[in-house]
Amino acid sequence: MENVTKNNPTLSVVIPLFNEEESIGELYQRLKKVLDGLGKEYEILFINDGSTDRTGEVLKGLFQKDEKVKVIELRTNFGKTPALSAGFDHARGDIILSMDGDLQDCPEEIPLFIRKIEEGYDVVSGWRQQRDIPFFTRKLPSKVANWMIAKVTGVNLHDFGNAYKAYRREVIKDVKIYGDHHRFIPALVKGMGVNIAEIPVRNEPRRYGQSKYGLERIYKVFFDIITVKFLLSYSTRPMHILGPIGSFFGLLGVFLGLRLAYLKIFYGDKLGTKVSLSICVLCILLAVQIITSGLLAELLVRIYHESQGKPIYIVKQILEHSPS
Ligand code: UDP
Ligand code: MG
């Protein structure tokens, strides 16, 4: 990692794999061809995310014959984000490129990413302009999600979900990603003042195995957008968002209460029969709830930011040729 020459930065290719035994052989062959042609030092990091098929054995075979291959085997299936994270943590390159291992991303396009980084961009994101996926269950939700993420985070990309991305080491090394948040990396690093480029890439249909995701991804992404907006804008000051919401209900409750008191005092209304009495009480309770959760959130934020050492994945073993 330290033997880096500025003019010819080294490259790490990070590939998460969960049950991709049929794809790995071809992926490796094509990767080798492209990477050997780059004229750069490189390493290939395969992360075996708890596969239950022969992925582990195939990777071991590659590791044994190629010293540029590094295999990180996770104890169980942690998910694509933790797998990527494990790869980023163990990558040594100045440029760190991630891609899927199911042959949907074409290794032949790696030079396009490198070229953009060398032009001076810090992050280069692949945009799958053509995708062979069902319209209603995948294409439409993906378009809506990408539009929402762009609006909410202020990062103008068309395709956040694509893992085919390249980063300058400094950018990706400090990013902590949780849950399924790999699609928010460009948004999460935006605050670091990075230049982000988007390049069109091909996306091949899946030839082997199946997609590891179903429809549940739609609602998960929706809630992730709320979380990320919160993290981006309020992660160090949650009361600035929860305070106003709580105050709105509090004031509404007080207003309804005063109105009821007025009606009681001047017109002798029977409060027990009023719906607005329940709404008034409900609003005041809500206000108390939201504001106290705000205070709890403030506490949590402090704990969250001060205990970042917490791992989100567990490594079983690392197969690594000792760095020369
Ligand atoms: N993947 C992973 N862990 C998981 C799910 C997926 O490492 O829990 C890998 C998978 O092997 C592939 C990439 O992440 O290399 C993308 O997954 P997939 O092709 O299923 O996603 P899709 O292309 O359908 O969005
Ligand atoms: Mg895929």
What is shown here, in short?
With 324 residues, this protein is α/β, with parallel strands linked by helices.
Task: Tell me the CATH topology of the largest domain.
Answer: Spore Coat Polysaccharide Biosynthesis Protein SpsA, Chain A
| Secondary structure category | alpha/beta
Q: Radius of gyration from the CA trace?
A: 25 Å
Instruction: Estimate the global geometry from the Cα principal axes.
Output: elongated
The number of helical elements comes to 10
Instruction: Spell out the CATH superfamily of the largest domain.
Output: Spore Coat Polysaccharide Biosynthesis Protein SpsA, Chain A
**Biggest sheet, in brief?**
8 strands, mixed
The residue fraction in helices comes out at: 40-55%
CATH architecture title of the largest domain: Alpha-Beta Complex
| Strand content bin | 5-15%
- Summed up, the domain count is 2
Across the major sheet, the strand order is 7-5-6-4-1-2-3-8
The count of β-strands is 8
Bound molecules: uridine-5'-diphosphate, magnesium ion
Average pLDDT rating: 92
Terminal-residue CA separation: 11 Å
CATH class of the largest domain: Alpha Beta
Question: Unreliable runs, pLDDT <50, ≥5 residues?
Answer: 1-5
Order of helices and strands: EHEHEHEHEHEHHEHHHE
